[in-house]
Amino acid sequence: TEKGDVQIIEVNPRFGGASTLSQAVGLDSFYWFLLEANGYDLKGIPFIRATKEKRLIRHVSDLIV
């Protein structure tokens, strides 16, 4: 605004398609966003990549085992 206040004009509350894969290999960007938004220094929270390769396979229907 003219006063310098922030106004939210759109909210898109979703994770992208590969977010679960990113998190599975150690890239927890949503958690880091929450910490950073609350004033935490992220230098103490390193990115530790998974030691094994992972693959995300998406499908339309549910799989119940």
Radius of gyration, rounded? 17 Å
Class based on secondary structure composition and strand pairing: mainly alpha
So what's the overall shape? flat
- Measured between the Cα atoms of the first and last residue, the distance is 52 Å
Order of helices and strands: HH
Largest sheet: none
Strand content: under 5%
Helical residue percent? 10-25%
Q: Could you characterize the architecture of this molecule?
A:
This protein is mostly helical and about 60 residues long. The protein is built from two helices and no strands. The chain has helices at about 20-25, 30-35. The chain is flat and about 50 Å long. It starts with 18 loop residues before the first helix and ends in a 28-residue tail after the last helix. The model has no long low-confidence stretch (mean pLDDT about 85).
Question: In summary, what is this structure?
Answer:
This protein is mainly α.
Topology:
Layout: H1 19-24, H2 29-37
Describe the structure using short key phrases.
2 helices; single chain; mainly alpha; 65 residues
